[in-house]
Design brief:
Helix content is 70%, strand content 2%. With 358 residues, it is an all-alpha fold. Strands 1-2 form a two-stranded antiparallel sheet. Helix 9 crosses helix 10, helix 10 (225-235) crosses helix 12 and helix 14 packs antiparallel against helix 15.
Amino acid sequence: MSMARQAEPAVSTPPVPGPEQSDGRTVRRPLALRLLARPEVGVFLGAVAVVVFFLFAAPPVRDGSSMANILYQSSVIGIMALPVALLMIGGEFDLSAGVAVVASALTASMLSYQLTLNVWMGVIVALVVSLGIGAFNGWMLVRTGLPSFLVTLGTFLILQGVNLAVTKLVTGNVATDSIGDMDGFDQAKALFASSFDVAGVQVKITVVWWLVFAALATWVLLRTKYGNWVFAVGGNKDSARAVGVPVTFTKISLFMLVGFGAWFVGMHNLFSFNTVQSGEGVGQELIYIAAAVIGGCLLTGGAGSAIGPVFGAFMFGMVQQGIVYAGWNPDWFKAFLGVMLLGAVLINLWVQRQATRR
């Protein structure tokens, strides 16, 4: 009898559930903090604030044509800010982006005019040149191990000098000749610089291209293996290489994407104005980088999005045109630019600390 009792399984009463214990690492943060940890949320709120401000400060902004003009200015900045942002997520940045836009337009214009070719030949050659400039920057970076600041600063100075010197040598002037009456111009203008009507308002085609490129960049970053590579090489290239990420290919291709953006914006400028001023583009690279930083891309790499720079570029376009519509001195734009940039850096720093806080 006693042995039978010992063979019976012991019946244990489950403990009464008490308050859930946590070690601090699994505490679910408030929704507001989790949303702010998204790189594009802060700049979206900033863009909303800027719009509301200028709707009251500059009544002409409320007009449809004014908003179309703001979107146009934003799109020209935003198309270049997107590849610059991807490059920054990959841990690098390009100081030659502004003059590369002008170099692309000069190449297409002078080649077509001086050789009396169909303008599409100039467009194609300009694309090859722009991709080559990006490939050169990337190759120099991975080959020498120099910081991208030094490599692209050198390219910036080279292109700035070549743009001016070659244009003067070929045309005898600082600007190219008009190509408005050449074969293929109308077709190229339809692709790069046309407008279409929306409810009686003329909207530039660059606005559509801007949004298409933003959607494509977002898909690449979030849904493709290449997007994972970009984040990996920006976070720690040595660790990325150790797990099989093609670091060299990724770096060079990111610089080539900047070259593609420079080509596209260069073609837009060329077919909008029929001619190109060879001394332009200096300083635009800072606008592109600032739009990416305001959009949530960290200078240290490894973090950011493609949507954030869209709002960053929109803020630039809104401020730039809003100041004009408000009747203020346009010189204030640079001051607003500096304030927005410092504010974005401080916000990004705070968000980064909140995201890593346990």
